[in-house]
């Protein structure tokens, strides 16, 4: 199976306003692909289309070769999605939420138990699993949402600003998990504002500005068209021609 996200000629309009304009790229297997751009550039709109939350105005999107619009249920079973907000299912306890997600994906009891123990200990929330998500800090909610998205061991990870709110140790653990995942031949596609993280972590970079895709490829290829020793931050600011 080819483990990748393939976006072809994706456009999203709201009325007369074009939010994303005719972009195409792939997030390949065995690679961490970073999706970067200013606020309002179209990152979340693109990710919501990839995950089937919204429908494209035109274009096609496939996950592991499965069209998200034509066979949404099968396509959605291929990936784990972490949205840019962790404030969901607040009345459930952490373990209730994880078991709920595991039930949706028919994750066997032995597999989910091992997953919950492993990830909860790595994230430092094992002792809080029986508390309600409402009582969690923002960072703890982010961790439990990440665990819920990954509990069925999907080949493709789609993460929208996943490091926001995480403490340094948990951010380190998540980055390690991402590296471990792609070493198995899987795919990680994530958006981030932290360019230093993208530079150190990503195998490929996609840069979007005002709904237009400016670049998608390796950082080495990007540097080849700029100063060879330039940081991703400097190249990004040069390409987007504006500072936040």
UniProtKB/TrEMBL annotation:
Annotated organism of origin: Ruminococcus difficilis
GO MF assignments: ATP binding; ATP hydrolysis activity
Database matches in InterPro entries: AAA+_ATPase (IPR003593), ABC_transporter-like_ATP-bd (IPR003439), ABC_Transporter_VariousFunc (IPR051782), P-loop_NTPase (IPR027417)
Domain ABC transporter: 5-235
Gene3D superfamilies: P-loop containing nucleotide triphosphate hydrolases (3.40.50.300)
Pfam families: ABC_tran
SUPFAM superfamilies: P-loop containing nucleoside triphosphate hydrolases
Lineage: Bacteria, Bacillati, Bacillota, Clostridia, Eubacteriales
Protein's UniProt name: ABC transporter ATP-binding protein
Entry keywords, A to Z: ATP-binding, Nucleotide-binding, Transport
Keyword ATP-binding appears in the UniProt entry: yes
């Amino acid at each position: 199976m080819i483990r990748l996200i393939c976006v072809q000629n994706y456009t999203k309009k709201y009325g007369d306003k074009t939010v994303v304009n005719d972009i195409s790229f792939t997030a390949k297997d065995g690679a961490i692909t970073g999706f970067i751009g200013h606020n309002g550039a179209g990152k979340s709109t693109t990710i919501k289309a990839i995950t089937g939350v919204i429908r494209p105005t035109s274009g096609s999107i496939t996950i592991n070769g499965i069209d998200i619009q034509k066979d949404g249920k099968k396509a959605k079973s291929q990936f784990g999605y972490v949205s840019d907000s962790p404030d969901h299912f607040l009345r459930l306890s952490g373990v209730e939420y994880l078991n709920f997600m595991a039930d949706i994906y028919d994750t066997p009891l032995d597999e989910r138990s091992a997953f919950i123990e492993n990830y909860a200990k790595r994230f430092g929330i094992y002792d809080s699993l029986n508390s309600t998500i409402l009582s969690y800090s923002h960072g703890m909610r982010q961790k439990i949402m990440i665990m819920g998205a990954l509990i069925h061991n999907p080949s493709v990870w789609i993460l929208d600003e996943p490091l926001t709110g995480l403490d340094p140790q948990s951010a380190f653990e998540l980055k390690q998990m991402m590296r471990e995942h792609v070493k198995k031949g899987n795919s990680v596609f994530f958006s981030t504002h932290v360019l230093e993280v993208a530079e150190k972590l990503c195998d490929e970079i996609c840069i979007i500005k005002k709904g237009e895709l400016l670049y998608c490829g390796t950082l080495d290829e990007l540097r080849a068209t700029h100063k060879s020793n330039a940081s991703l931050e400097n190249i990004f600011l040069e390409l987007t021609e504006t500072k936040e």
